[in-house]
């Protein structure tokens, strides 16, 4: 599998995750109303999310992607400074 194929698969997985999340958000009942989805359907959705995550991890390993560090498409690392916040005293 070349990088272009992996990239296409990653885009597909990302879109599937987003679409599935939107479906769940759209059918989530408000204000204590009963859920329109059955327990089996809810479990199937959870299984789909788990499979998507598992495949994304496999693809990241194939690309030697270190998931503990943020990834920036252009390769540039942002410069950041640590700020110290001090709560002002009451005067």
One letter per element, helices H and strands E, the order comes to HH
Shape: flat
pLDDT averaged over residues: 82
* Number of distinct helices: 2
Gap from first CA to last CA: 66 Å
- Strand tally is 0
What portion of residues is helical?
Answer: 40-55%
- Indicate the radius of gyration in whole angstroms: 20 Å
Strand content is: under 5%
How does the major sheet shape up? none
Low-pLDDT residue intervals, each spanning 5 or more residues: none
Provide the structure class: mainly alpha
Mind sketching the topology for me?
Layout: H1 3-27, H2 39-62
Helix pairs in contact: 1-2
Can you describe what's shown?
The chain is about 55% helix and about 0% strand. The chain has about 90 residues and is mainly α. The protein has a domain at about 5-60. Helix 1 packs antiparallel against helix 2 (about 40-60). It starts with a helix and ends in a 29-residue tail after the last helix.
Tags for this model:
mainly alpha, 91 residues, 54% helix, 2 helices
Question: Could you give a short description of this structure?
Answer:
By secondary structure, the protein is an all-alpha fold. The chain has helices spanning 3-27, 39-62.
């Amino acid at each position: 599998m070349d990088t272009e194929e992996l990239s296409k698969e990653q885009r597909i997985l990302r879109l599937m995750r987003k679409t599935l999340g939107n479906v769940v958000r759209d059918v989530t009942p408000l204000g204590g109303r009963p859920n329109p989805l059955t327990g089996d359907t809810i479990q199937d959705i959870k299984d789909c999310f788990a499979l998507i995550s598992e495949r994304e991890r496999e693809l990241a390993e194939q690309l030697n992607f270190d998931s503990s560090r943020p990834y920036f498409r252009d390769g540039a690392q942002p410069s950041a400074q640590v700020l110290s916040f001090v709560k002002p005293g009451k005067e």
